Amino acid sequence: MTHERQKAIARNSLLIRSLPEQHVDALLSQAIWRGYGRGETLFLQEEKAQAIHVVIDGWVKLFRMTPTGAEAVVSVFTRGESFGEAVALKNMPYPVSAEAVTACEVMHIPSSVFLSLMRRDPEIGISILASTFGHLHSLVAQLEQLKAQTGAQRVAEFLLNLCDGGDGTCEVRLPYDKMLIAGRLGMKPESLSRAFARLKDAGVTVRRNHAEIADIAQLRDYAESDPAESWSKG
To answer: Which is one Gene Ontology cellular component term of this protein (predicted)?
Structure first.
């Protein structure tokens, strides 16, 4: 990926696009651009946070290890999404670990650079707030899904987010393995398999790492239907 394309993706991220324009070039010029292989660690839980991260390409997962040694997936980020803002600016340790789910490229902005700019222009704090509220909104949406949707509906929503939009048929590539998809959606792997089976009636066919959607509108209706109705269909 060319450096100009990297910068264009970074500029379009929620974090950067809400910055005062006069600071964007200075910020990007001091960023660190790095590629990671699948399974490579970006940082570990309890490490001191010293940068804010923006995914330029690929997928990154944030996770915590439970006392029993199990992995709890907190979130998964992709192109244009940022993470680590709050802990980096407060000079705190990371509450999670980060790992490349696929080969990916990430832009790291040293927190010292952000803090220096914030001291010169307090409006930069607005971009941090916008990004932080974006994360909060995402977490609230995840909680709502867990409380108000069946497992099959959560999977339907996940597939719809991979579509380009519109109606008609669509084929999507599952961006990462099914075990991680299950963890991301608060499900066990066997529950994910049952959810895929239920979605056959909604026009979804899953073959390895691809999902064919016969009718996007039909799947959207399924995802938004009353959970009791969805269970009766399964």
So the answer is: cytosol
Rounded CA separation 77/176 (Å): 11
**CB within 8 Å of 119: residues ≥ 6 apart:** none
Domain 3-146 in CATH 3.40.640.10: no
Distance (Å, whole) CA 5 – CA 217 = 33
| Strand 32-36 relative to strand 104-110, pairing | antiparallel
Q: How many CB atoms lie within 10 A of CB 13?
A: 19
CA distances (Å), 90 to each of 48, 75, 86, 114, in order?
A: 10, 21, 6, 11
Residue 81, SS3 per DSSP: coil
CA–CA distance, 176 with 100 (Å, rounded to integer): 10
Structure tokens at 178: 């099914």
pTM passes above 0.85 = no
What pLDDT digit, counting tens, does each position of 6-25 carry?
888 888 887 888 787 888 88
Q: Which residues pair with 48 in a beta bridge?
A: 93
Domain 149-233 indexed as CATH 1.10.10.10: yes
Structure tokens at 6: 């990297």
The structural domains of the chain, with segments of one domain joined by +, span 3-146, 149-233
